[in-house]
Here is the input.
Amino acid sequence: MISNSPLVPHIQQGSGADWIRSLPVHPRAVKVFAASAAREIKAIDPAIITIVRRWVPDQEGYLRQGVQGGVRFVQEQDDLDGVDILEGLNECTSFDDRDAVIRANDFHLGFVSECVRRKVAPCVLNIAVGNPREDLVRHLVGCVQAARDAGGYIGYHGYGGLRLGHAEEWFAHRGPLKLEPLLRQAGMSGPVRWLYTEAGFDDISDRSLPSSSWRQLIADGHASLDEICAEYALYAERLRQLGVEVACIFTFWGAREWHKYEHTAVPEMLAWFARHWQTNAGPPPAPPPPSMPRIVYAQPGPAYSFINVRRHPDLAPSADMGDIPRGQALIVEGERGDFYKISAWVAKSVVASAPPLALVYPVRGRRRQINHRFGEPRDYGPHEGLDLYAERGDAIVPMLDGIVDRVRAVDPGTGYGLYVRVYHDRRADLGKEYKTWYAHLADVAVEVGTVVRAGETVLGHADSSGNSTGNHLHITLQEVGLHNGLAVDGAIDPEPYLS
Here is the structure.
């Protein structure tokens, strides 16, 4: 039997298997520090969710490698069998420096991609209490969105004052209730799953005493064990209300410097947790639904040799497929860029003819000239649009009638610099909605809400703002509701539709 309480043990050394085995009702999850320990827990009860944190001596070395550092972090763990959730770097930056936050975002993008490939749920960031700085939250949208889309979690440390009324500031207002709205404002879509990778009470809420361990509070006569246990019960209920599934109570069997925080040396506390889990007993939580396969349609152009393409063994002999022919559908596992893995070949062809979507060429006065095509390999993955030849100051016009829905000087994860996005409602004739992006501009001549006409309204003028090596116009054609894991989710190749 599994408990429904979000409070779970956080075990620093060993697996705690003997203790877990002795419990009448098992906790919902157990956090350990090695995959081998996770396998010991799974041998006791496969329904227990296993969370693994990996300590590394040189976090900065992984961060400097960006996306590849995140991939390496996962690849260095040879056997993840028995691991349900894998944490990324722990408090990998102070989150008060823009460049450090961007490095953390890049690392966790690679981390999420490799976790998806290894079939474990990612838990990114593991943010310390009070972080990050509000004006830097937007730089984390990329990895948060990737983790969310992969069915993963955002890790947060929730330590706070002993009285729950005051602890709200720590457990909620400085955590999910503060960060999630900021992430949404910065462009994140969909709900976030929060996982308190470290949690507990470590001081008195009236702030009249210096921060100290809960055991020291008892020793000094500031709280009784019964009071702390009662607060844990209230904390569990509040976490349920907040939608937090798991809070790892720190710490059992810890290193010497953490002895003052651990619970294992207080038998009465361990007995309380055993009773708490038994009181909250219930059927094992339903496993998360499997992620839906993504259908991606091959586009004409250079061979996608940078994508690892394999046939599904049940559908065809195991062999590389080589070039992806136009008009075939592929079921895709994975998230971004060259971390795609094609896991199944769909024998059924799809209609190869282009839909009646006619795009006006967006660089006024220029003949069609494409510098870089859709799908070409980039550091972050396949190119999600086209780079068109343009000189500085060339007028940029919309490719379709529509309405401006975004104007940005900078956007985390895109490198687009100054750009305009236009929404196009084509449900009446095509049954679809689209968005077009126009990036690396010198200026913007429209604002959100402006109604624009294809080929007529000037959106702005070409330049080289953002992550760009020279004057040009980057365009992206996005199909609303399509999910394919590109840098702009739902991006499709605009070239076949350009006039």
